[in-house]
Model the fold of this input.
Amino acid sequence: MSTTGQRVNVLQTWIRTHGVDALLLTHLPDIRWAVGFTGSHAYLLVTSARAWLLTDGRYTTQAEQEVQGAEVQIVSGDVFAHIKEAGYLAELTHGCFQAEHLTVSAYRRLTEALEHMVWEGVEGLTHTWRGRKAPDELARLRRAQELTDRVFQELLGWIRPGYTEKEVAAEIVYRLLCYGAERMSFEPLVAAGSRSALPHARPSTRVLREGEPLLLDFGCVYEGYASDMTRMVYLGKAPEAYREHYRCVLQAQEAAIASAQADIPVKEVDMQAREHLKTCGLDAYFTHSLGHGVGLEIHEWPRVSYQSEDKLIEGAVITVEPGIYLPGKYGIRIEDMLHITATGSENLTSSTKELIELT
Done:
C-alpha cells in the first residue's frame, strides 16, 4: 500500500486516541491527502475499523482507480441519508466533523439523518499531518517550482514595454500549461508601475512602460501540488531609491530564511524580516504576514505570521515573501518556497534575486 493508502490508519489512530467512534472529512484536499481521490465531490467517513469514500456516479471509474485505503460507495441522493440507510454508524454514538469545512446546511442534514449520534466539530485536524510533506509530495512541489522558474527565466527575454499586464499574465498561463502544469495555483499577479503597490493586483489592460517596475507573482499545480514565487523586474535603469528599497527587502527575506528551521516559532521567522525592514524605516509598509504553507492548496498551514503561535515542523514547505508597498509609487515583494529541515531549510526556488533591469 502506498503512503496515501496508509493515511487512513492515521485517521483511525486519531479516532481511537480521542475516544470517538467516527470521523467525517468533507474538505476535498484533505480527502485527496487521505485516500488519493481527485474528484470535485466526495465525503470520507472513517471509523476505527473501516473507511468509506462516498461520491456520485460521475466518478465511478475514477474513484475505483484512485482511492486507496477506503471502500468506494456511489451515492444517489443525500449522502447522510445513505449513511443512515446503509447502517455504517448504526451502533456508534459519537462522531466528529471538520468544523471549518462543513456548511450549516450540511450540518443540519447530518444531525437530522444521524440523530442517534452526538456530533462534535474539530478544527485544524489535518494541519500537521499535511504540513509534513512525504518524499513523493516534495518531489511534486519541487517539479511545480521548476516549471515556475523556467517560465520566469523565459519571460525575461520576452517582456518589453508595450505589452499589457493581461498579455503578460496570458503568456505565463500559456507557457506553464505547455510545460506540463495542470493549472495555475492562483491567477497570476502582474502589476506594473504604481499598481505594484497593490499587494494582490489583478492583471489589467494597463500597458507596461519604460522606467517602471513590474511585479510578477505566479505559480502552477503539478500532479496536485502547488508552487508560488514572486519576482520584480525593472523596465530600464532603476533609480537609486528603488535600488535601496529592493536591497532592504532582499536582506529582510534573507534574514528570515536564515532563521527558518524545524521547531522555530513562525512568529520569530516573521519578525526577522519585520525587524530588518524597521532598520530601513520601511516596516510600516509591510502590510501582510511573511508567508504560508504550500502543498495541495496554495495557502495551507502554517500561516507564517507574528500573530501565530505555531512552530515550523520538519518536512513543511512554506513561502517567505516580505514586501513593501508605497502608495502611488511602487511595491517590492520577493518570494521563495522553502523546505524546512531539522537544521535549516532548502530553497526550492532557483530564480535569481539580483535586481533585474531590462534595458
About this structure: The CA atoms of residues 38 and 315 lie 23 Å apart.
